[in-house]
Amino acid sequence: MEEHVRGKFWFDDGNVVIRVEGRDFRLHSSILKSKSSYFADLLSHNAAGPDVVQEAVEGCPVYKITGSKVYFLALLDGLYGDLLLTDKTPSCLTLACFLRAAHHWNFASCKSWAIEELARHHPITLKDFDQAGYPEPAKIIVLCRTAGVTSLLKSAFYGLLGQKTFGLKVPKPQKENGESNDDAISDNDTLSEDGDASDVDKEYSFDPNVEWGSSDGILSPDDTTRAILLLEFTAQEWMRISRKPPSYAFLSDYTSHASRSGNCREIFKNIWHPNVTEADFADEGWYNPLWALEEIKAIDWQGKGICSTCATRCREEWETERRSIWDNMDKELGIVGSDG
């Protein structure tokens, strides 16, 4: 007879046993049905079906479901454990496992909570976004594809541009038997969180032994292509902005510059290239024009001869450029629709 191990969550007053990859969990059908349309359907059928094991454990019917026991454990930590109660910040890996489970077994409210938590630590708005500080962009992209999430994709792809070679690694050589030398553990076993020990201690993990799977940060060919096209888009935008001084009509408006020896457009022609095109930050503009435009805004243009009115209006135009680049990335990445 096949041996089944009791999982961490085993409640004496539970009325149903859920079996996932040989791990049994005695739970409450009322909680599962109220949170999940999948379990509401599964547990509402009294007749025996393919998911019902022809046995009972301590008087409880046993339901065998497909999926990862690791992800299911993360889900139960949210339903019964400390995940939603802890004062610590949930680790990215914990949220990833919880989100995958919530999506797989249709826990809609749990999925929404996980997306909101990920968005707190992976900002999705232009105002809060920081490419240099964006953690694990490739893993977030893969997670979004797995869980049908679109709201986190744009910031993740843009964060990816800040990593050398998009964070891709050369595959390890295969052994003679055709197996890879990569000993990373697969998703369905135990999934190591990156970062030093001090960072890990500050985060909440539903299981300290769980690590990222070897495929969790590997982009699909289509998403790799999207990343390359996005880099081409940002490079073109930066070239358009940086190679020529601004020529807004207000820079050469006679009325506003009548009391000056020259208009601001002519002054920009003399100071633009050394301060922008040849600046130290210019190289980063190819893959991070949003940050480079902030650097341009921060330059003391009045101190370099631009009138205060034109300097203010130019900063407004550059902020508009930033918003336009950010908004147009949806089209470049083909992002449509809302979170599924």
TrEMBL record:
Instruction: List the coiled-coil residues.
Output: none
List, alphabetically, the Pfam families matched.
BTB
Specify the superkingdom: Eukaryota
- Domain named BTB is located at 14-88
What is the name of this protein? Answer: BTB domain-containing protein
Task: Give the span(s) annotated as Disordered.
Answer: 171-199
Record's InterPro entries? BTB/POZ_dom, SKP1/BTB/POZ_sf
Please tell me the species this chain comes from. Botryobasidium botryosum (strain FD-172 SS1)
Compositional bias, Acidic residues, is annotated for: 179-198
